[in-house]
Amino acid sequence: MNGSLTFLSVAPEIALAAAVVLLLLVEVTFKPRAWAWAVVAGAGLAAGTALSAWQWVAHRGADTGTFWNGMIAVDGFAALAGLLVFPLAGLGLMSAWRLAASQGRRGAEFIALVLLAAAGAHLMAAAADFIMLFIGLEVFSLSLYVLAGFTRERVDADEASLKYFLLGAFASAVFLYGVALVFAATGSTTFYGDGGIADYLAGTVIFRPGVLLAGLALLLVGLAFKVSAAPFHVWAPDVYQGAPGGVTGFLAAAAKVAGFAALARVLTAVLGARADDWVPAVAVLAAASVVVGTLLAIVQDDVKRLLAYSSVAHAGFILTALVAGRGGVGDMWFYLATYAVQVLGAFTVAAAVSGDRAGRSPLAHWAGLGRRAPWLAAAMTLMLLAMAGIPLTAGFAGKVAVFRAAIDAGYLWLVIVAVLATVAGLFFYLRVIVAMYLASPEEGASLPASPAVGWGARFVLAVAAAATLVFGIAPWPLLEVLRDALPL
Amino acid sequence: MTVTAGWYLALAAVLFVVGASGLLLRRNALVMFMSVEIMLNAANLSFVAAGRQLGVLDGQAAVFFVMVVAAAEVVVGLAIIVTVFRRRATASVDDLAGLKG
Predict the structure, then answer these.
(1) Does A64 touch chain B (CB under 8 A)?
(2) Which domains does chain B have, with CATH numbers?
(3) Which helix (H) or strand (E) holds A330?
(4) Which helix or strand (DSSP H or E) is residue A72 part of?
(5) Is the dihedral of CA A351, A353, A358, A360 positive or negative?
(6) What pLDDT digit, counting tens, does each position of A348-382 carry?
(7) A13 touches chain B (CB under 8 A)
(8) How many C-alpha atoms does A462 have within 13 Å on its Cβ side?
(9) To which H or E segment does residue A66 belong?
């Protein structure tokens, strides 16, 4: 299959790109109502999902095939990323639908950017070459920079956008220089095949080991930045807090999925032969993320900021699975998929409580939510309990899975640190729940108008709650499928 | 003394450090963005030099992709910086301190 040319390998990206072009053309030609946007976007995402499902059926469990001269990988891993990213983009659009519709004619651009981000995210997971990975990373990131500042009328949003852009561009440049150094050392940017980087690293003789090591380190720093692992997390709180409420959920969920998909493929498929060198570094990153994220989340008074620091901690938990190398990839996907749905659900509630254009969501907005909007409060409680890792939620099953993977790999100390952080994390998750049910709004406090929830947001919350409970009570079927299907 | 590819790789490393320290030390958003461009060009120079040294064309091909991506990045980046500047009449990142905690 190597080197053969087939468009089916990039069919999901083509479907999404076609949907984007069609959407913008229809927009400028006919100036349609908002439902027409939904039809085009829905068709594009459904086509992407269906093509990924077809790839999944055809390729899961099989060896990785590469196309376009080793640029694109087709395997269960890439198909799984599509099956997760495209529905997630659909849910993100539903959650942000009121925001998009309220932007007038710019709403079509909003939807186009979400679709482009989804295409870039899938390209990151399917890339079999560092240059292709860089392109996917940039398509994805550039869309998110704009989305973070989409509501121009708000001061916070353009600050979030500029910070995200400057730090994101810095991380991309670091990543790219790492790729250049790896190329200087190995003479290749391709992952697989004869003369690829994996092949080179599996050999016994390494010329220029210093250049190679520096390149790999810079490259991993760039990716760690994208998944907001400590100490490369500084952008996350400001961006999550400043971005419009309707956008943050998709931004948080998609950034984790795309970043970890790329990281997992690079670590296990490219650097699999040198696992002894990178596993300790990843373990330290994981421990740092878990500790820093948890400790800083405890002192936050803004729910969106709190969720941002909690996402740093979750990046650490997901990295915990990766210290097991190839054996942990299935567990990583389980954690990633369930966490992505939880974080999208939690930010959907935050957008309903504080307004989907608003950046900030101070804890005062949440006081007495249990009485004002019982269903919203119940959904938020379930998401928070799942993130905290309470049994019978998917969060618990995911934590058990990643901890077991790390123990099997001999990283007991990391698991102990992570368990302690989980216990400490209960404090800040419960703090929000206490505010919702036990606190009453302060006298004369200016609360936002009663929480407005559109049908799209209701559907997102129903899906998130169902997924969290189903995979919390019976995680084994999904876990086994994920573990079987992913030899990278 | 002949100038070998190693010299170019060293120059690229210097450029990368200049760009990275520019981004970390300067406070003007435009200058910071310019520093990022210097870092990208450091990567480009490494690609070309290494490709020439190894006798493969992959390095030069990579540079084309990077240049296109960098152009797209400029479009988005300058738009964001102009938006910020219009509102605040300053491009200094020290004035962007609304979000913290």
Answers:
(1) no
(2) 28-89 (1.10.287.3510)
(3) helix A329-354
(4) strand A72-74
(5) negative
(6) 999 999 887 878 888 888 988 888 889 999 999 99
(7) no
(8) 8
(9) strand A65-67
Cβ atoms of residues A130 and A181 within 8 Å: no
Q: ipTM above 0.90?
A: yes
Q: What are phi and psi of B82, to 5 degrees?
A: -65, -40
CB-based contact A159 B99, cutoff 8 Å: yes
Q: Is A304 touching B (CB cutoff 8 A)?
A: no
Token pair for A297: 């989340």
The CA distances from residue A250 to A72, A185, B69, in Å, are 25, 37, 23
Give, in order, the Cα–Cα distances in Å from A40 to each of A16, A85, A94, A115, A456. 10, 17, 14, 11, 16
Residue B31: is it exposed, middle or buried by C-beta count within 10 angstroms (0-12/13-18/19+)?
A: middle
Note the pLDDT tens digit of each residue in B39-89. Answer: 999 999 999 999 999 888 889 999 999 999 999 999 999 999 998 888 887
Q: Note the pLDDT tens digit of each residue in B10-43.
A: 999 999 999 999 999 998 999 999 999 999 999 9
Cβ neighbours of A145 in B, within 8 Å: 76-77, 80
Token representation of residue A361: 């969501």
Amino acid at position A396, single letter: F
Helix (H) or strand (E) run with residue A74 in it: strand A72-74
